[in-house]
Amino acid sequence: NPTHEVYLTAAEASKIPRNLLSDLSASPSVAGAGSVSVATYQPNAVGLIASVHRPVLLMLADTYYPGWKAFDNGREVPLLRVNHTLRGVILEPGEHDILFVFKPSSLVLGAWLSLAAAGACLLCLIVKRKRSDRYKKPLSMQTP
User: Fold this and answer.
1) Nearest-CA neighbor of 46 among 75, 65, 15, 68?
2) Which of 12, 28, 73, 90 is the most buried if burial means most Cβ atoms within 10 Å?
3) Dihedral, CA atoms, 35, 41, 46, 47, nearest 10 degrees?
């Protein structure tokens, strides 16, 4: 029953502080835990507003993929892989503005490499043009 239990690997469970892990285990039901609403939903960003009365695991029924990052009230928090394929975060009691952002390091690296390659091509064109200008001889208008 997904409203009472979730599957976490040992690696994912190790991201949860021990005191919160025991609190989560003690009260697995979602009844009366609080509320959550979707603020924004875009391909590369999901924003949620949550108000919880006790520690909870907020599970977003969206695919987990490396490159997603989670922020709670502007502070990066551990993103958990829940039930093998979904994303989740641990919330302590209180008000939360949660933002899931997709920004894989491969995308950033690819952008930097593309920029470097474009710069190298531009530099090659400039050097080639300067060399060709240097070897051009002006034509003389005089005849012998």
Assistant:
1) 68
2) 90
3) -50
